[in-house]
């Protein structure tokens, strides 16, 4: 073979090899992009199953089916505020106002202004239940889904029962 033919053949082979490497890099980029897109789509679909406060439906079901500590107040002042929230939002009405008033009286917070100064009470009024398991459940943000309503009702019923035990 002539030298020029060998050089031309070598250039052709090396060009093909470089094209193959570039093609492989392009495929790798395409696979990487596809994987990123897929993971973003999964994250987006997961976020559609959460409520406004970021609680997934599974977490709401866990609160509903979990132990009473998960939806019981960690302080009686917070319980009084939550009871008022429950009354104002028509979650329960089983003589809740009377129990709340007796509870505030027993805590020495019959003066509304004095009660309003208590952080736990104010949080309860906003629907923030500070639980016995050292978490905070935002009743307001549970929404009006069937599951959200059930969790709110269970929380209000448990706090009412807890308050009745405290005042008796």
Automatic annotation (TrEMBL):
Record key words, sorted: Signal
Signal peptide from the UniProt entry: 1-24
Name of the protein this chain belongs to: DUF2501 domain-containing protein
Entry-linked Pfam families: DUF2501
InterPro entries found in the cross-reference section: DUF2501
Organism: Erwinia aeris
